[in-house]
Amino acid sequence: MPSTKEIKLALMDVKDPELGYNIVDLGLIYDIKIENEKVTVVYTLTSPACPAGALIENNIKERVGLVEGATKVITELTFSPAWTIEKMSPEIRAEFGLIGF
Questions:
Q1: What is the rounded average pLDDT of the residues 26-52?
Q2: pTM for this predicted structure
Q3: Do 86 and 101 touch, CB atoms closer than 8 A?
Q4: Phi and psi (nearest 5°) for 74?
Q5: Residue 13 in 3-state DSSP?
Q6: Sheet containing strand 29-35, strands side by side
């Protein structure tokens, strides 16, 4: 059975192609559920109209599917709660000049 840490590390290889940063540090991953060999990743996008949504979803499935023991990968897209810049890691916010958020 894969660990949450292994799944999170795999998700760090998935980048938002428009912003160029991984989806973990961008705060797009809301939950990781592991039930034996089934992994469910609950995620969001920076906006409902994000043109990279399908690419990000496919990359989540691909990268998590490479983790040993993750034989079934389910993705759940949600917009509740809505993504905000406060969900970004402090390092990413600083790179965008968003100090104080």
A1: 96
A2: 0.92
A3: yes
A4: -115, 135
A5: coil
A6: 29-35, 38-43, 72-77
56 occurs within a structural domain: yes
Task: Tell me the CATH number at 51.
Answer: 3.30.300.130
Predicted confidence (pLDDT) per residue in 55-95, tens digit: 999 999 999 999 999 999 999 999 999 999 999 999 999 99
Instruction: Write the DSSP string, 32-91.
Output: EEEETTEEEEEE--SSTT-TTHHHHHHHHHHHHHTSTT--EEEEEE--SSPP-GGGS-HH
Range of the domain at 35: 4-81
Please give the tally of structural domains in the chain.
Answer: 1
Residue 26 token pair = 């961008």
Structure tokens at 60: 């989540």
pLDDT digits (tens, 9 = 90+) for 7-36: 999 999 999 998 899 999 999 999 999 999
Residue 68 lies in a domain: yes
Question: Given this model, what pLDDT does residue 36 score?
Answer: 93
Peptide bond into 90 cis (omega under 30): no
